[in-house]
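QUALITY CONTROL LOG
STEP: pairwise intake check
CHECKER ROLE: data steward
CRITERIA: each record must contain a sequence immediately followed by its structure tokens, with no blank fields

ENTRY 1 OF 2
RESULT FIELD BELOW
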Amino acid sequence: MRNSWLIVRRELGAYARTPSGWLIAACVLLVDGLLFNTRAVGSQPRYSQEVLEQFLIDAGGMTMLAAVVFSMRLLAEERARGTQVLLFTSPVREGEVVAGKFLASLLFLSLLTLASLYLPALIFVHGKVSVGHIAAGYLGMLLLGAATLAVGMFASSLVGNPFLAVVLSAVFVAVLELGWWVAQKTDPPIGPVLAWLAPYMKHFHPFRRGLVQLEDVVFYAALTWLSLLAATRVLQAQRWR
């Protein structure tokens, strides 16, 4: 784990030194604020719970989008810059590389997500919502972001171009979400199985209602673990080519 934490420090330093990470964060927070004012609050009177749920729907989607974009800074960038050889020739195992890069991106994404907490806090100015509802919603966003980042890590391990990594990550996530829409027109038992694979439409929506269900937590944990394991296996295969 020591090598993984060294990679975490290196990657976090790269996020701090380069403008791309801060630019993505600024754009996400700007869109979150705009969506909160136009869609969540709107021009018509609403109950505070409705405002919070609409905000969590939008913020969850933005967290997912940010995680897809962050996939460009994972493994594909190492190949594009020619620094992957240095990783392969250093005494660092593939799993430590994957874990270090994933944790660094997850920490940055978590800080970005938590930076929007002031928006639901504004609801308390003219209304009242449960703090537990807000906590459940943000827990869901963090789990959704972690799972999407892991999928992006796997996509990034397959290509050598950062832009292609983003595109492939978006395709993988879109395929998982597509199962929800296909399930609406598919009979059991295939329909429920396809719907269960959708990280956002199926498993995030209980969180935006303030519900923390074990099924959804297990799904995000399993998707994250399987994606990181697949990325590790791809790196191992590339090392011995």
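ENTRY 2 OF 2
RESULT FIELD BELOW
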Amino acid sequence: MTPQDFAQQAGITFHDQSLLRRALTHRSYVNEHPESLEDNERLEFLGDAVLDFLTGALLYNHLPEMNEGQLTRLRSELVRTEQLAAFARELRLGEALLLGKGEEATGGRERPALLCAAYEALIGALFLDAGMDAVSAFAEERFIDTAEFFLQSETLLDARSKLQMWAQAEMGETPHYRTLEAYGPDHAREFVVEVSIGAALSGRGKGRSKQEAAKRAAEDLISRIDIHATDMGRSQID
């Protein structure tokens, strides 16, 4: 696939075709073709910075109730090597890369690190060619859809975070936690915590620490009101 064919099927317009070609040029190709002036590594550096800003701005604007730690974890998921490589595969970016024969023979077109770098270089080139608005138009929908998917992950958001996001989005309330009971010897202490949202919704949980009991209480309330992460993610992001 030529660079021009790639841009057409990916829905990107480049005014400066040399930027597009440079974004798709791996250093192994330059080593075998001295007439090529530059590989994509400098554009990769720029694209990495552009993506950090873009994802930070998108998450900040679309998830107003998410705290800094959650935003940081979600941004890390969106820009990690494997995820950017997946975006590159969706775009068939590997098919358009200019690679040296050795790199191609060893599977370079499918190597995650190489695809990630090429995607970052493409973003860097698009930024230089047309600015941040063009980058956002090209990448925003894909990043938001992926953020929705990650919001369903139990490893990304725990029960307390999910409950807080739902409560603030749907009821304009913040969950309130209080310890109802603590019993047992010091080495085997048990806590009972209640979480409530307004006057009508409450849940209880038990655990060896207040934190564990609060998590169980949040899980209990989530099960009672049937909060689904998918629905919650959409209500926050749309």
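INTAKE CHECK: passed for both entries
DESCRIPTIVE NOTE, ENTRY 2: Residues 56 and 72 are 8 Å apart (CA to CA).
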